[in-house]
Amino acid sequence: MWSADEAGSGFYRAVLPGMSLQWLGHAVSGGMRLPHDWAALDVVVGCRVAKPEPTMMWQRLKDEGKQLVLDLDDNYFAIDPANQAAVRTWDKAMLQRLADNMQLADVVTCCSEPLAAVLRDYADDVRVVPNGLPAQYLGTPRDYEAKDRPLSVGWAGTSSTVAELPEAVRALNRISTYPRPGGVQARLVGISAEHAMALGLKGRRIGALGWVERHEHYMQAVGEWDVWVAPYRDIAFNAAKYPTKFLESSILGIPLIASDIEPYRRVIRHGENGFLVRYEHEWGRLLKQLADDPELRQRIGMTARGEASGSILQAINVQWQAALTAPLGVAA
Question: Which pLDDT belongs to residue 160?
Fold first, then answer.
């Protein structure tokens, strides 16, 4: 598993799949560098191989007769213009190398069907393998009552996805001053307090944890929330994403409020296993409703958690195995 980074993308598309394939008896190595004995590898899974030097190695691996699987978890052909750093990185040359490397691959894997529909313009054999998490998180206990303590409302993102947050800033500011017993705290993971204030978030009951490097620490931080908000703009880049916030919130049993866009409308049934927002004022109304009703928080959270068993790595790993071991040129 040849990862392009060590952040969330690399964790979900290289580290966790590699670990889960080991459970099936496969010998797996992983990291941002190929192992010194790469010549002995049967299959190389390269996550978004597009930079010049990795592209040269990708071509060499092909010449050596290795089976190549190129994995993508975002639509880099529809980069959000608001993310200027990504726009500079994914220039015309970078995108052309990515397209060429997909053509060179035996199989292309990705995280969602909408993304697969885009990638099939560039590769013949594209297979969808969703994100997953270890089953251990299904057993994390929850306190839905939140008596005599502040209710915690959370948002998680990064400096590259923070453009989504303003959709819910007003609602987060208002809910943080809501006069319920114990009060309400708004908690942000992935950005600094200074960045949060620059976006208009304010008040002593709003806190920002910043970037959390280790995924287990990230899951511990978000696992302390009572309600999770996932605002997104309705743009092509977001439509091709995997609903990772629903994966994380549901496996932890946390009720999620998300924007009514692809991919969240594919997995959330409004009022049953989560909530979907179409208009800005709905963020505040739904947050207040959940803050007032612990039974509703429990019903939504437990319904989502009950459906999360299909998203554990112990179920996903066989899909990775099928994608990596199927006969070359035979689409799944």
Answer: 77
Per-residue pLDDT of 294-331, as tens digits, reads: 999 999 999 999 999 889 999 999 999 999 986 544 44
At 325 the pLDDT is 82
3-state DSSP: the chain helix, strand, coil percent, rounded to 5?
A: 45, 15, 40
Q: Which of 65, 122, 106, 116 is nearest to 329 (CA)?
A: 106
Closest CA to 69 of 45, 98, 33: 45
Question: How many angstroms separate the CA atoms of 1 and 17, rounded?
Answer: 8
Distance CA 308, CA 130 (A): 13
Which residue in the block uniquely carries the two structure tokens 């092509």? 236
User: Using CA atoms, how far apart are residues 3 and 70, in angstroms rounded to an integer?
Assistant: 10
> How many Å apart are CA 240 and CA 77, to the nearest integer?
11
Cβ–Cβ under 8 Å, residues 205 and 185: yes
Torsion (CA) 98, 103, 106, 112 in degrees, nearest 10: 60
Q: How do beta strands 126-128 and 107-110 pair?
A: parallel
Give the list of residues 6+ apart from residue 37 with CB closer than 8 angstroms, or none.
none
Residues 6+ apart with CB under 8 A from 197: none
Measured distance CA(155)–CA(210) in Å, rounded: 11
Closest to 155 in 3D by CA, of 166, 142, 141, 144: 166
Strands 206-208, 184-189: pairing is parallel
- At a CB cut-off of 8 Å and minimum separation 6, what does 298 contact? 142, 144
AA letter at 69:
V
**Backbone conformation region of residue 51, classed left if phi is above 0, alpha if psi is from -120 to 50, else beta:** beta
CA distance 172 to 167: 10
Contacts of 284 (CB under 8 A, 6+ apart): 170, 171, 174, 175
